[in-house]
Amino acid sequence: MEAPFVSTHRFPWVLLVAGVICLAAGSWLGLFVVPAEHYMGDVQRIMYVHVPTAWTWMVVVLFSLGSAISFLFMNDLKWDTRMEAGLEIGSLLAFLLCCQGAIWAKPTWGVWWDWDPRLTSTAVLLFAFLGILALRKFVDDPTRRAIWSAVATIIASIDLPIVYFSVKWWNSLHQQQSSPETVASTFHLPLRLNAIGILLVVIALLALRSRVAGYRLREQLAEPPSFITSEPTGELA
Amino acid sequence: MSADVKVLVAPRDTTPNALTAALRKELLLQWRTRGQLMAVFVFGAAALLLFSFAIGPSAVALRTFSAGFLWLGLLLSSTLTLAESFHIETEHNALEGLLLLPADARALYYAKAIANWLQLTLLGAALVPIMVVLYDAGTSRLPLLLAVIALGAAGLSAPGTLYAAMTARLQAKQTLLPLLLFPLIVPALLAAVKATSLVILGDPMGELRSWLGLLAAFDLIYWSLCGLLYGRVIDS
Questions:
Q1: For residue A91, which of A14, A216, A191, A206 has the smallest C-alpha distance?
Q2: Mean pLDDT computed over B89-102
């Protein structure tokens, strides 16, 4: 399979800067300007990062699944570089989500961890993605690595709703999902700013990370240097 | 010349014949390596013995958690049998020889998965008496318990066989297989433990049927999905 084309466009850096500005503005509003929530107090302010992280995480999981399916259909390694980026950033976001959830749960529910469907399925998918990333480290052949991790990504993503519903029937405590309709209008602006900010940062990171994966693939697939492939000269033979 | 070519590219056999032939091969292999299954059974029984030390000698607690211990024992044992299930095929590149046969790769997968499923069901059934003795977790509904074990084992064997095919040729297969498999089978494990627990401890709310339904649905999804993707895994 051919090495993918690697773009050197400056666009991801622009997105990254814009995202960081949105995130800083949204967090400043959320932490210092908007009043604290009536029942939960200041603890609720973690919502301004937690909820956008959860939204973006779901987008990244869908992106990884889409890249995996596209690779299996098109056999183009550019989708493998995107999948690698999605797997890594998806793991990072899932880890952040679990940490933020635990920080919020301790003062609110009194425990760090709870066997709630969303928390548990996030943790399960985190481990599934980490397993796939570990698998990628042990497979040297780029084509085989791409196919195997695409297959594993598809299975892990399809597993996500099953895990969610099985844990939901098993045990449940998490509060209902927040949406603009269930959140008072004063909280809208920081929430939306942070959502846009995290989304932009994540898109930029996905683009940059797949670029890195593309360079590594090109290096791996490049022709070996001539002194390795060239026939020995008559004098030495 | 063209007649010769026609013979060489015979259509791939997707009839049940290919599946029965492959299954016969798997079962024969398992029969000839039955010593290994015995060793894995002893491993599972030892695990069940060790789990009781985690709880302490409280008979009530042991009985309450017996279903979970049974499934953890079976899960740990299954990683041993699954990781070894492609051992013969990796020796001397025998798998390539198999793929050259005019048989569908899916027939090879389903034969292997069915053989692994039978092996795990047998292993689970053999661990039941150990569980009953150690944890005092007897039940009069033995056929139902065996059905739960068979359904749960099916949930382990379908993705387990697929991942065993991937990791068989890798150095760290003993680590990678559980790492890939454990997060996936959470729903099957959860449903199997719950259903087993309801069979042993009684089912006052009538929940058993829905857990069995979930387990069967999980099996159906994984048996079809893994069979579909196996061709791509093995061709590479």
A1: A206
A2: 79
A237 confidence band (pLDDT: 50, 70, 90): very low
Tens-digit pLDDT profile for residues A49-93: 888 999 999 999 999 999 999 999 998 999 999 999 999 999 999
The answer to whether the beta carbons of residues A119 and A186 sit under 8 Å apart is no
Domains of chain B: which residue ranges? 12-235
ipTM for the whole complex: 0.84
Sign of CA dihedral A137, A142, A147, A150: positive
Mean pLDDT of B11-33: 80
**Closest among B199, B106, B103 to B151, alpha carbons compared:** B199
The structural domains of chain A, with segments of one domain joined by +, span: 12-175+184-218
Chain B hits for A135, CB-CB cut-off 8 Å, are: 166-167, 170, 176, 179-180
Alpha-carbon span B175 to B178, nearest angstrom? 6
DSSP classification of residue A177: P
Contact A119, A101 (CB under 8 A): yes
Residue B16 CB neighbours (<10 A): 10
Mutate to test the interface with B, among A98, A133, A159 (most CBs of B within 10 A): A159
Q: How many CB atoms lie within 10 A of CB B154?
A: 24
A47 contacts A235 by C-beta, under 8 angstroms: no
pTM to 2 decimal places: 0.85
Distance CA B191, CA B214 (A): 7
Is A98 in the B-facing interface, judged by CB distances under 8 Å?
no
Bridge partners of A37, per DSSP, are A41
A137 burial level (CB within 10 Å; 0-12, 13-18, 19+): exposed
Of B186, B226, B232, the CB nearest to A72: B232
Place of tokens 């026609």: B6
Q: How confident is the model at residue B5 (pLDDT cuts 50, 70, 90)?
A: very low
- Asked if residue A78 lies in contact with residue A214, where contact means CB atoms within 8 angstroms, the answer is yes
| Residue of A160, A180, A71, A177 lying closest to B183 (CA atoms) | A160
The tokens for A233 are 């000269």
Query: Which amino acid does the sequence have at A32?
Result: F
pLDDT tens for each residue of A189-236? 888 899 999 999 999 999 999 999 999 998 888 866 666 655 555 555
Which of B162, B173, B181, B184 best probes binding to A when mutated, by most A CB atoms within 10 angstroms? B184
